[in-house]
Write a structure and sequence with these properties.
It is built from 15 helices and 13 strands. By secondary structure, it is of the alpha/beta class. Strands 1-12-6-5-4-2-3 form a seven-stranded parallel β-sheet, with helices on both faces.
């Protein structure tokens, strides 16, 4: 009997311990669940706050490239009514943008005479040529060199191949120019080649973008660029004018991670977010070879027939984009494109009432002149700004003639004038 009581007592103790353990585990699990729910709620709240701070981006309905990196400053600039009126986006590596007028202030009569007396020499190592933009850059470089008594002793172009550009620079360095002007084909692979030039005492000025791992004011003198981000804003504005601020749009962009084309595209997209919520970016396609731009455009127009407007990158690939739009049966009265840079072929298309409705244009000849000024100033001991911006132009058919004259330093060609007058009904 006594043994039975002991066994019953032991069973009761075991059951009590089990019950206590179960209750403890349940409480712990509940506590952990509450903590997890709280963490999830906190994460969700943080995400909501972040999205709210970023603004409503619901009109961007497709993925952006992996290199896309519009900063908070850039997004604020996209809200400014007149691009550039409140400053320009920072440079490639965060350098403060300085207007080209600050370089002009350093070109005093005294400094100009010092430059002429120095009997300087220069080399031009372009990444590519054959288009209107590069022709105007070289024109500006040569004209300013001539005006300042600087002899151009070498001029090369690399067919958009970094290996050739590196080889070109090695050959040029043997001629020991005082200054060298270049737009790098590949900013990641050409750093050592450019640093070698600087170490030889050659004053390097970059066109549009610099190489990676190079310190401004030490490894090179200056970068002289258009306000490329602001050009993207212009491009969006002109497309919005044509579409009345609403509709499905697409973007044909340069796929490689290349600063100047990146930042223009970022300007276009951020302007849509900031100013045109009823313009929905529903399709994008990147190209690496501009000769494939027609195929890339055709693919978007076939898949998304509701598209009524598009960003078509710069004037050279836009030729293919225009061809694709024609073949797809698009009507320029209801479908339009906006681009960067005003080449003559696209100027004629605009004048004829074609698909090109607006342009955000660089001023390459003016850039070239400023690049020479920066290098020459450095040669006589002055310190020009390290990131110089030459403001661009917002162009459409209504100001085509005046803008063309500013850009090319010549009147709009007669065939383009005739086409524009016919389109606008001007006698």
């Amino acid at each position: 009997m006594k043994n039975k009581k002991i066994i019953a007592l032991l069973i009761a103790i075991v059951m009590a311990v089990a019950l206590f353990t179960a209750c403890t585990n349940t409480a712990t699990t509940a506590s952990e669940a509450t903590t997890t729910e709280a963490a999830a709620a906190s994460t969700e709240a943080a995400a909501t706050t972040s999205a709210s701070a970023e603004g409503d981006r619901s009109n961007i309905q497709c993925e952006l490239p992996v290199w896309y990196n519009a900063t908070a400053e850039m997004r604020e600039l996209a809200k400014v009514d007149v691009p550039g009126s409140q400053g320009y986006a920072a440079g490639q590596f965060g350098d403060k943008a300085v207007d080209v007028s600050e370089v002009s202030k350093l070109m005093t009569d005294e400094n100009i005479q010092k430059i002429k007396d120095a009997k300087l020499t220069a080399a031009i190592c372009m990444g590519f040529t054959g288009d209107d933009w590069s022709a105007q850059i070289v024109r500006g470089l040569r004209e300013e060199c001539e005006a300042l008594g600087i002899e151009v002793i070498a001029e090369t172009q690399a067919d958009f191949k970094d290996t050739k550009q590196i080889s070109d620079m090695e050959a040029v360095s043997a001629q020991k120019p005082d200054m060298l002007f270049s737009i790098p084909v590949n900013p990641q692979t050409e750093t050592a080649a450019f640093k070698k030039l600087t170490e030889q005492g050659i004053k390097v000025v970059f066109i549009d973008q610099q190489c990676a791992d190079m310190e401004p004011g030490k490894d090179f003198v200056s970068v002289v660029s258009s306000g490329n981000y602001e050009l993207g804003l212009y491009i969006a504005d002109e497309l919005a004018k044509f579409l009345g601020g609403k509709g499905d749009v697409a973007a044909l962009y340069y796929a490689p991670d290349y600063y100047v084309t990146n930042v223009r595209y970022e300007g276009f997209v951020e302007r849509l977010v900031a100013k045109y919520p009823d313009m929905k970016l529903i399709a994008t396609n990147g190209f690496q070879d501009w000769q494939k731009a027609q195929d890339a455009t055709a693919a978007m127009l076939t898949k998304y027939p509701s598209i009524t407007g598009m960003y078509a990158s710069w004037d050279v690939p836009a030729v293919g984009a225009v061809a694709a739009a024609k073949l797809s049966g698009k009507d320029p009265k209801t479908f339009g494109m906006t681009i960067e840079d005003l080449g003559n072929e696209m100027a004629l298309n605009m004048a004829q009432g074609g698909f090109i409705k607006g342009v955000g244009a660089q001023l390459p000849a003016q850039q070239g002149r400023a690049e020479v000024d920066c290098a020459a100033l450095a040669c006589i001991g002055e310190t020009p700004p390290t990131f110089v911006v030459v403001p661009g132009l917002d162009i459409n058919i209504n100001n085509l003639d005046t803008a063309y004259e500013v850009l090319y330093d010549m009147a709009l060609p007669e065939d383009i004038v005739a086409a524009r007058n016919k389109t606008l009904g001007i006698q």
